[in-house]
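Protocol step 4 of 5: obtain the predicted structure for the target chain.
Materials: sequence only (see below). No template structures provided, no constraints applied. The aim of this step is simply to have a reference model before the mutagenesis design in step 5. Sequence pasted as it appears in the construct record:
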Amino acid sequence: MQTLDGGSAMFSDGEEILALPLEYWLPPGMSPVDAGDHFRAAGTLDMYSNYAVFLCAGVWELLSTIFRGGSSDLHENSQTVSTQWLESWGELERWRENHPATLQPLATMHAANADQNSFPRVLYLTPYAIESSLR
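Step 4 output (structure tokens):
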């Protein structure tokens, strides 16, 4: 649900925000900075997959904030936006580097030549791997 929700926020030029704000994904009082530890501590594939969706939703929320603020607001807050963007990128990279082998693709097949379908075919072992795929 959250990934489709993020897509609608993107296509509305940031006018719509996420239906489920990020703070509702975490226990009361927990900072988003501690989200990674929270999701990893569960030690389950579904929670690690949920963490990927949470990270993507955070990017949607940041983009939505940028679009809603307009270019003048973006200029005034460029340092804050840059910092948030780099923090989000860092978390996504940590997720990608450390995600369990079970969530990695079993096989990826590319088209034999440029005249064929350019989209790769990716085979995953679990539904959690499909949900959390950030490739």
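Step 4 remarks: Residues 2-104 form one domain. The chain has one domain: 2-104.
Proceed to step 5.
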